[in-house]
Amino acid sequence: MAELSVRNLTCTYGNHIALNNITARFPTGKITALIGSNGSGKSTLLETLAGTLAPRSGSINNLVSEIAFVPQRSHVSHNLPITIRQTVSMGRWSAKKNWQRLTAADRNIVDSCLDRLEISGLADRPLGKVSSGQRQRALIAQGLAQQAPLLLLDEPLAAVDSHAASLIEDVINQQRNQGTTIILATHDLDQAHQADQIIALEKGIIKPQRKATESIKKR
Ligand SMILES: Nc1ncnc2c1ncn2[C@@H]1O[C@H](COP(=O)(O)OP(=O)(O)OP(=O)(O)O)[C@@H](O)[C@H]1O
Question: What is the pTM of this model?
């Protein structure tokens, strides 16, 4: 898989410039951590790579067609009629044409993802009636179930306890070891340190790497 990169990428919301002419490379089969304060542009970059936001200018190069994106979500209606298992199964449906039925192999993948995130016991519970940390694990399991070569995670450790955080970190490392390219936004500096590359954003631009590393060490 050729290396994913962005060149002179600018993204705006109306007149507001959220990403200002950034150029970056995302090594294949490695973890890139995006860090930066609130509003620095991390989610905007992930959404642009995921294709849910169109850039104003610049290019995205070598983007694969299958992308698993786990966005930042905080609220789901209590009445949403979908179970945790169905939520994770949606990761398999994305690879199907014309809403074909899931095969036994698909169901095994779903079971394995539920198991890896330790939510098998919650599989039949409605997504809207579990805790936000449990929901976060379900959404990550959905992303894993896609088995896409590119996995985008927006604050995967938000809302989870320390056990779940280390579980999610292990899962992310396992995915990287299997060759998945991972780009994640995080405010957790321990998690950023475990990444292969750190990109520090500030007001929509990339801080030079040396300074980015220094700023992490100081905190
Ligand atoms: N839907 C939107 N409409 C208008 N402006 C937006 C929108 N989403 C984000 N922005 C603005 O774009 C900039 C980048 O926001 P973004 O969400 O990418 O930051 P972030 O680094 O992910 O922040 P956080 O750490 O809080 O999640 C901010 O100034 C933000 O206010």
Answer: 0.93
